[in-house]
Amino acid sequence: MTETTRATNGRADKRMGRGRNSALRITPVFSTPGVHPYDEVTWERRDVVQTNWKTGEVVFEQKGTEFPDFWSVNASTIVTTKYFRGALGTDARETGLKQLIDRVVKTYRKAGEDFGYFADTESADVFEHELTWMLLHQYFSFNSPVWFNVGTKSPQQVSACFILSVDDSMDSILNWYKEEGFIFKGGSGAGLNLSRIRSSKELLSSGGTASGPVSFMRGADASAGTIKSGGATRRAAKMVVLDVDHPDIEEFVETKAREENKIRALRDAGFDMDLGGRDITSVQYQNANNSVRVSDTFMHAVEEGKSFDLRARTDNRVIETVDAKTLFDKIAKAAWECADPGIQYDDTINDWHTNPETGRITASNPCSEYMSLDNSSCNLASLNLLKFLTDDDTFDAERFEQAVELIITAMDISICFADFPTESIGQTTRDYRQLGIGYANLGALLMATGHGYDSDGGRAVAGAITSLMTGVSYRRSAELAGIVGPYAGYARNADAHKRVMRKHQAANDSLRTLGSMDTDIHKRATAAWGGVIKLGETNGFRNAQASVLAPTGTIGFMMDCDTTGVEPDFSLVKFKKLVGGGSMQIVNQTIPRALKKLGYTTETAEAIVEYIAEHGHVVDAPGLRPEHYEVFDTAMGQRAIKPMGHVRMMAAAQPFLSGAISKTVNLPESATVEEIAEVYLQGWKLGLKALAVYRDNCKVGQPLSDGKADKKSDEAPAAVAEPQVVEKVVYRPTRKRLPKSRPSRTTSFSVGGAEGYMTSGSYPDDGLGEVFLKLGKQGSTLAGVMDAFSIAVSIGLQYGVPLETYVQKFSNLKFEPAGLTDDPDIRMAQSIMDYIFRRLALDYLTFDERAELGIYTAAERARQLETGSYLPEEAVEEIESESLKNDAGDDVDTDAGHAVATAAPAGARTTSELFEAITGTSVDAPLCLTCGTKMRPSGSCYVCEGCGSTSGCS
Length: 954
Description:
Elements: E1 2-6, H1 11-16, E2 22-26, E3 43-51, E4 58-68, H2 73-83, H3 97-114, H4 121-136, E5 140-142, H5 144-149, E6 161-163, H6 170-185, E7 189-193, H7 213-226, E8 238-243, H8 249-268, E9 288-294, H9 296-304, E10 307-311, E11 318-323, H10 324-338, E12 342-345, H11 346-351, E13 376-384, H12 397-417, H13 423-432, E14 435-440, H14 442-448, H15 456-484, H16 490-509, H17 516-539, H18 553-558, E15 573-577, E16 583-587, H19 590-597, H20 602-615, H21 643-653, E17 664-667, H22 673-685, E18 690-695, H23 706-710, E19 744-751, E20 754-762, E21 768-774, H24 781-798, H25 803-810, E22 819-823, E23 826-829, H26 832-844, H27 847-853, H28 858-867, H29 873-878, E24 901-903, H30 911-919, E25 936-938, E26 941-943
Parallel strand pairs: 6-7, 7-8, 8-9, 9-12, 13-14, 17-18
Antiparallel strand pairs: 1-2, 3-4, 5-13, 6-13, 10-11, 12-18, 15-16, 16-24, 19-20, 20-21, 22-23, 25-26
Family: Belongs to the ribonucleoside diphosphate reductase class-2 family.
Protein name: Vitamin B12-dependent ribonucleotide reductase
GO molecular function: cobalamin binding; cobalt ion binding; nucleotide binding; ribonucleoside-diphosphate reductase activity, thioredoxin disulfide as acceptor
């Protein structure tokens, strides 16, 4: 923990020029005194090889990298490829996690000493060890630019989020292009508001007509599409904002929708218009997220059906009056067509602004979570919430507090030594010291503790945690202000800053808790906000902003998080890479923990987990009560969270954040324009600062399947190809009859008290060829139906229908009689059909075939609980048993069921593709430009879990 004490060396006076001589004395919380964090873990060497699955080309290879044994293969691969510095194959190249963490942490420690933060060397030592321990154990991570730049010979850029400004002059517009380029080069993204640029309906001083902001967007878009962000493979990320009262607002709103129509026309003509395709570069405005900045006046006019004035930029005269509802509907229609524009709620944003005397907030970073002054930046860090869940399923709020205090201290120190792409950004950031602490794994935490994401209980937990995080951050900021002084712009904004702190405190006081977990967290949050008000009155604050909720794409994988940012879980079944180079599919490891928390027995939990492994969802899972379905709702699938569920979760967290939330509200393809308009309207009413939507399949440049890419060729487009004559060949199945004498087995069974017999006959080569079922009295309707069913199945088998197909169709079929059976391998069945085909699978399918269906014998399940594998010991050794361990580092609670682990389908390379293979549902997301796999949503961007690349957010 940390406390303020009196320094004796006076360094704060010398460095900061302020008459203060107190400093931080830090005592260990996470690390062990006298033991270096590295000595507490087991290290192993790994070869990191990354290929593009389409071409087979090795895009990266580094052998012998060193990582803790509990880090997943995915985490070590992403960290090696993204964050290790130095040229490959040279002595300058980093070879292990120790070097990476030391490079960053030692830089932070030295700056903390140089700038007078620590009371003594011992406190500096503890600070270094505490940060190292938390990073090593994946408790938190700094944003990507820190890992890219800190401790290297490159400029020490630590910020991921930038806001620029542009005025109504050619010099300013060209300077905008240049500044964006430098930011993109450094691996970050930028946003700005173009509303100062006069519209195309206004005159220039020379007498000509102005071009308008939309025309200048073309040049910036082309620049962004050319520069590789941070020298890596992804393109730049940017946000363009226009005020709703700008005369060119309709052109701005419809710009990307028109381009999407162009994409469709070119695609239909045979051009390659996939994301990353060779012809997509001819389309404009594809490198930016667009947002409309709406005012309360406009939104009230929409509600009341009134007109709204569009005003000139030069003299504020009314150029045009439009119907507010019609304009709002156009915004919704464009978002329906192409997911742009999003909405930013201007009055809400500026009502929570701590520095209004300096200037208004006019824009955001590309992902919409950082909102502050023009020409400013923010560095981010995110905590892994699941790490603070104890063995007894309580949230360790005390350790969470202590972690937040330490991380905020480190983030503020980074501004002391950081470099910035422009002097104006550097000056504003040093004067206001904006920080962006946040978290990841909220969705996993809620599931593990038995809370539905779209539930009052889930929202209460999220609100309490967010309130505690921001309250502790500002309390520490006030403590730091007492050591090294408040931020330079505080004096002129003191009243406004303290007013916003009281607004946060009031929101915390009105938070409604529902359970012991959120009640305990809320009590600590209340105490933290009390400290904020008291200390802030005396010391002021070190930081103008403290918290945001970022996408946590790449760093989320670095921390082995199941869920990113504020998002729910993507799916219940995950794709997992193995040390030996193979892969497997596993059921989300938080599910067994959730089932135990909800009170399910081991036997029932096991059946539920097996059902999820096969189906990818929980609907009709054996023994699972329908009222618990909501706990397992996900972003995709049969029980996908409804759009307003996402909006309500954002509203639960927003009052406790300095900035905003990076999140896209996903809607099904069938969603209407009116539904999108309602989401935007409710976002305003619920007090959000920004909102973006995405309707499935609304964009052509985001392929639905990899097969689409496979069809590409260098041949002429299909639209102009020569017609070909194709001979149609019709194949007919042939029945393979059983011999007169064939082996068979008879099985007696009892399901839910109903007794029967099954006789199964097979071919001499052991393939199943017939099934006869005896159930009910001879001559009864039931007996006749079962005879007919037996004949139909038998004929199908003899015509070549695979038994696996029947098992897939009839297992888990639910009807009475159902319940306990007398079969030790199948203790519970949902119906007679469910039992029959599970039994046939056990009798006639190979282990690998059954494993893909999630069907195991009692002995195999027992072996899995003991060894972590269903296979016998000798088989495990053959397929590299070490790879089957839980290399994510978190123990699976086998008391409440197990995480089913089976070989992943051959065509799956990520969780998105695995989800498609299991459910048959398409994931509407782009393919990764680096490794070719399908990405998945992360905040308002996309992230590749194969290589860590993102579509824009670090």
